[in-house]
Amino acid sequence: MSKSIKLAILGLGTVGTGVVNLINDNLDELKRRSGRDIVITEVGTRRQRDDIDPNIIQNSDLMAAAASDNVDIVIELIGGTTLAKDVIMHAIKNGKHVVTANKALLAEHGNEIFAFAEAHNVHVAYEAAVAGGIPIIKVMREALAANRIEWLAGIINGTGNFIMTEMRDKGRPFADVLTEAQELGYAEADPTFDVEGIDAAHKLALLASIAFGIPLQFDKVYCEGITGITLQDVNYAEELGYRIKHLGFAVRRESDGSGDAGIELRVHPTLIPQNALLANVNGVKNAVLVNSHPLGQTLYCGDGAGAGATASAVMADVMDLVRVLGSIDSNNESTNGHHVPHLAFIPEQLSDTPILRAEQMITGYYLRVHAHDNPGVLADITRILSDAGINIDAILQKPAHKLGQVPVIILTLPVVESQMNIAIEKIEKLDTTTDKVVRIRLDELA
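Request: output the structure for the sequence above.
Response:
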């Protein structure tokens, strides 16, 4: 009889309960795939639950549950970056493998946690930390292991995608859609992490490390939210053949004379072509587009949150760790398993490739300038852009408002951000411009 694999689930919120239900529903399938009985022996919960199997220990002492001799794998679903970190480090110290969905913790402390796990010969699995049920971590660490990843772009926050979809499809203002997102449970009472891009930045830090073999560097991710996006800009973008999405980008830049070498890590609203794959991922869905050599572009799309999607990712990690714990050979003897390095590359081979600063980034731009309806205004604006070495791709001039102001919308070809900063400063100093220049980055995803 093969040895059972024993789980401790710490945190019985939406996801934790989803994991319990998934195991109960698919018990036979899990055994057929793993060759082991997978059983929950302990759960960490602040209050006793009547709906939990009485054979499962309900433990309010999470540290004790994480170190229990009756546990092989600890599943951390409590969230946050303080207690969760203490629990995970305690579990590792006691020789337990760990599964977590905690992107904030890993983005901010993952280097330390992964090094501690390596030192104790255990593994921390985190598929559920990025894009819910989409197996993007596994794809990048394993399926694309022979590829050189050049860049990735992703819709990695469902709340932001829901808001941008509703604004475009129904012409609703940002504040109105945000209120509905909160009522539907897509956004928290304090939506800052979602709408300001912090949640997406946590996830992007993890994806970039796996893509490029670099240490986690969340503090170097450029982050811009969607709170300043107006219906006016959504509509102008549509008129020009683009859609605005809140995207995370990780881009490898080579030194080719157009800019500095390094890696761009950025989260911001972005105009992308209406026929682009990511432009047609709507609602609360997540999607990650990866461009690698020699494979080319591949898209991974699905539910980025929710009990079922996240529980699916958690249990995918558990199944991998069952194999790490060893399989059973034909003589019913345990054999050693193996695991992929935490960040896909051998720890000693992680690169010190620099992360580029915001002013070093290269993108196209959407600019909206409000100016007095005077002769020569457009000529002044285009001259400033030309003097800064910025090439214009398209211009849209709208009729004057009743106040005599003319909205001028300009799309540019890719340019180094520092050049754009200089140009915008000069445009805003013109006597004819009446407001701050609205800028939104633009990417053709090619």
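Residues 328-336 have pLDDT under 50 and may be disordered.
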